[in-house]
Amino acid sequence: QKKGRERSGAVVIGPAGERRVRFSVVENDKWRSAGRTGMGAVMGAKNLKGIVFHGTRTRTPAHPDNLARFVQETKERRKDDKGVHAYKTLGTPMMVDVMNKAGAFPTQYWSKGQFDKRESINAAAMQEKCTVRPHACLRCMMACGKLSTVKSGPHAGLTIEGPEYETLYAFGGLCMIDEIEEIAYLNDLCDRLGMDTITAGNLCAFAIEAARRGKIKDKLEYGDAKQVANLLQRIAAREGVGDILAEGIVPASKAFGLEDLAIHVKGMEPAGYDPRALKGVGLGYAVSDRGACHLRATFYKPELAGISPPNQMEGKVEVFLDFEDRLNIFDTLILCRFYRDLYPWDQLQEIIAVTTGLELNEAELRRLSAHVMDDTRRFNIQEGLTLNDDTLPKRLFKEPLESGEGITEAQLVRMRSDYYRLRGWSREGIPPERDGV
């Protein structure tokens, strides 16, 4: 380690975290959020508003010259990559059109797979309604972030990084808000309050359904951004129905008597990829260690790309495991998911070699990944997880999309059984005891 100029950083929570809203976030770098599973509530429970870091030391890689060469070669190799170019020019909002075309864009609280007003909230709409420029994390060539400044209307001048696809799906699709400027405002509001936009949008849409069915007295309608903004503020303040929603989807659905309507896995709401159209995504939601998470395997990518077509069951779980195992290594190295196509197994081996000096082959990396999965699973089982938790909401099995696409419980059970077997787990999903890795 060597000394250099002092740098500083901070992670903070907002009012939602202070009031222990179950889906409150930890924010850093102004617009970035550790968004899911309620880590902000954990800090809030400890009366911890934020943590500030100061330091001058940097880590010295095992092979600095080789690392510099690897970085330069990666830049040269990928400068004309179509995926890199798409993220740099359009960012994640491009997925609005992609998912609508696939019939997998969750709309009207999981009632439909397409939004007829998608052209008002897609990447083109963002470019038209906002002044948009690329924004990159430190030294990233992809620059997928978009600093967007609203051009006109009541939110003129508002600048945020985003809205990202998941926020567009949650408020645009689920809540059916068809003005991207309003979604940008709701994005900013969630950031300032310190709440996860995926869960917040899901809960607002769920509350709209509860109001339409006479389960709550609040007047809420699809497409009304002002009502949604007011509801977000009430959730963060724990006022009225907001206090119930602040506890999350499981307690809220019980309180409203709408447990059969609620969409979640292990208490966490899914991201913007409908498993009725993308079957492998359904497996990912079901077996994820933290609920309906799309990031553990990002399996929408191979399904949309035709590597594992959505309705093709044969060989799907093998492809799923390859993605999940490789992305586990991404997590241990703290690599961005959007580099998944840039860093296959051999590239990960080289990254580890030049930074740590460890020479690990693909088989060894796969064993390490399996070790991570096994230990995580054992912890969850210790905390009460069972086979019955590795499933999808029954509503998704019973209600096909308007396209006719659907996922059956039998399909999920088949994929789940294959997953357990290929992981080396028991039929109940229990990992074996192993010595070492």
Give a structural overview.
- The protein is α+β, with helices and mostly antiparallel strands and 437 residues long.
- The chain is built from 19 helices and seven strands.
- It has helices at 15-18, 39-45, 64-78, 82-89, 95-101, 123-129, 165-174, 180-193, 197-212, 225-237, 241-245, 249-256, 279-287, 300-304, 316-333, 345-356, 362-382, 394-398, 409-423; strands spanning 2-12, 26-28, 32-34, 50-58, 130-135, 145-150, 159-161.
- The strands form two sheets. The protein has a four-stranded antiparallel beta sheet. Strands 5-6-7 form a three-stranded antiparallel beta sheet.
- Helix 8 (180-193) packs parallel to helix 10 (225-237) and helix 13 crosses helix 19 (409-423).
- The chain is globular, with a radius of gyration of 22 Å.
- The model has no long low-confidence stretch (mean pLDDT 95).
Key terms for this structure?
437 residues, alpha+beta, 4-stranded antiparallel sheet, 3-stranded antiparallel sheet, 19 helices, 7 strands, 46% helix, globular
Widest beta sheet: strand line-up: 3-2-1-4
Strand share of the residues?
A: 5-15%
Given as residue ranges, the uncertain stretches (5+ residues, pLDDT < 50) are none
Mean pLDDT: 95
Task: Kindly report how far apart the N and C termini lie.
Answer: 29 Å
Question: If helices are DSSP runs of H or I spanning 4 or more residues, what is the number of helices?
Answer: 19
Structural class: alpha+beta
